[in-house]
Amino acid sequence: MAWNWKTENIGIKVAGAPAVSSWKEGRLEVIVHSTDNRLFYRAYENDIWQGANWKDITDGRIPAVPPAAASWGPLRVDLFAVSNRELYHRLWQNLTWNPWAEYLNGVTNDSPAAASWKVERVDVLVHTTDNFMSRRYWEAAVAAGADVQELLNVLDDTYEFDKP
């Protein structure tokens, strides 16, 4: 089967790749970074955009680069965005966006990447300004008080990303 491409005018000038996550069959949660440094959200379900308009979810954080999103279960999306070179987290749960709740440390100029590989676990990775890749994760089963793990350098000091 061939790929089907459809270009759509969504009424927003988009800067970079959208963040897309899915928590059930037939549904996409789509977040775009606009050229005026705002984040917009809209659901796409069964080939139809949901709601009348894109919702501005910037909420005080000025995104510098496109965000990342991942879902580890029904009615949940974890959104990660970089504002002022720092990584932040926001949660979409039960059809509602919660406020930006967490500053996750890490200094970066690049878009984060996020994924979930099991229920109640999400990992976020960033390219740091010192050319390392750092990872942070949240897991519900981790001991109380230690749910959010520190941003860890994934590679040892001998491996650096190519410098421009």
Please tell me about this protein's structure.
The structure is a single chain. It is built from no helices and 14 strands. It starts with 18 loop residues before the first strand and ends in an 11-residue tail after the last strand. The strands form three sheets. Strands 1, 2, 3, 4 and 5 form a five-stranded antiparallel beta sheet that branches. Strands 6, 7, 8, 9 and 10 form a five-stranded antiparallel beta sheet that branches. A four-stranded antiparallel beta sheet has the order 11-12-13-14, with no helix packed on it. A hairpin with a 2-residue loop joins strand 11 and strand 12. It has a domain at 19-116: Lipocalin (Beta Barrel), CATH 2.40.128. With 164 residues, the chain is mainly beta.
Q: What's the β-strand tally?
A: 14
Based on Cα principal axes, name the global outline.
globular
Helix/strand/pairing class, anyone?
Answer: mainly beta
Quote the distance from N terminus to C terminus. Answer: 38 Å
Mean pLDDT: 85
Proportion of residues in β-strands: 35-45%
Assembly of the depicted chains:
single chain
Instruction: Name the poorly predicted regions.
Output: 143-164
Largest sheet: 5 strands, antiparallel
